[in-house]
Amino acid sequence: MEYKNLYEKGKKQLCEAGIEEADLNARLLLEYVCGTDRNTLLAHGDREVSGKECSLYESCIAKRENHIPLQHITGEQEFMGLKFTVNENVLIPRQDTEILVEEVLRDLHDGMSILDMCTGSGCILLSLMHYSNDCEGTGVDISGKALQTAQENADRFSEHPAPVFLKSDLFEKVEGKYDIIVSNPPYIPTGVIPTLMKEVREYEPIGALDGKEDGLFFYREIVKQAGAHLNRGGKIFFEIGYDQAKEVSELLEDAGYREVEVVKDFAGLDRVVFGTYLPKA
């Protein structure tokens, strides 16, 4: 079958299954199967696709029809210009989280120490280490399977010094102090999770999504314990839900953080809260 015809067939199936951006998904899956790029559809749409590639593509389309995330089918997701391994054990890195990384980079200097709480795939920590020099990084997660994925990603990038990944219930096993703590914790209220897209609620790890009753549980716990692990003048950065800026900002201010600021994402929604740890002497 010709490349463009196979693409059209896949797009039609995904449209009928109600998949958002069916055309983009169909194209990306075809590129994944054939090892091609976006120009192939435009310039070489008449190229013949082998029977083996057709079968694999049809299998991928069938998975996507069932709302299995595209990234779980291809096994990777681009984030901050880097490709990360992803699977059912970690949240799929999202463009909104790049805002968090970019804000940290404004204050990150070479040789600093970074603690990434709820590290998941490691995309935040590894991006920060990749775009700086000689920073020491520790990624913490309660999920051993998530940490395995984070380590796989660390092995791909071979940052030096290499990051350390620690299985810990928040700060339970964390030692020492850091210049920066960054976290994208679970922040979706429990009652909202059933309303999420099927791709999210059924295929991404619930433990990385569920922020308990009001979505603020992990912010409270992290803020409560973070001061013991931050150097004076160090900073903490959070990704937040669009309606959580006021509450998270107040948590930081009440805990001795100063210069608390809120940063919006490209959609104009509150996305990041950060502050400087300056407790009263």
List keywords for this structure.
Rossmann fold, Helicase, Ruva Protein, domain 3, 281 residues, alpha/beta, two-stranded antiparallel sheet, 2 domains, 7-stranded mixed β-sheet
Helix and strand arrangement:
Blueprint: H1 3-16, H2 22-34, H3 38-43, H4 51-65, H5 70-74, E1 76-79, E2 82-85, H6 95-107, E3 113-117, H7 123-130, E4 136-141, H8 144-157, E5 164-167, E6 178-183, H9 198-203, H10 217-226, E7 230-239, H11 245-254, E8 257-264, E9 270-277
Helix pairs in contact: 1-2, 1-4, 2-4, 6-7
Percent range of helical residues: 40-55%
Biggest sheet record? 7 strands, mixed
Number of DSSP E strands: 9
SS-based structural class?
Answer: alpha/beta
Total count of helical runs of at least 4 residues: 11
Strand percent estimate: 15-25%
- Weakly predicted, low-confidence segments: none
Question: For this structure, what is the CATH homologous superfamily of the largest domain?
Answer: Vaccinia Virus protein VP39
What overall geometry do the principal axes of the alpha carbons give?
elongated
N-to-C SSE string, H for helix and E for strand: HHHHHEEHEHEHEEHHEHEE
- Cα-to-Cα separation, first versus last residue: 73 Å
Return the CATH class of the largest domain.
Answer: Alpha Beta
What is the second-level CATH architecture of the largest domain?
A: 3-Layer(aba) Sandwich
* Oligomer type: single chain
- Average pLDDT, rounded to a whole number, is 96
Describe the strand arrangement of the main beta sheet, using strand numbers.
Answer: 5-4-3-6-7-9-8
Predict the CATH topology of the largest domain. Rossmann fold
* Radius of gyration based on Cα positions: 21 Å
- What is the count of distinct domains? 2
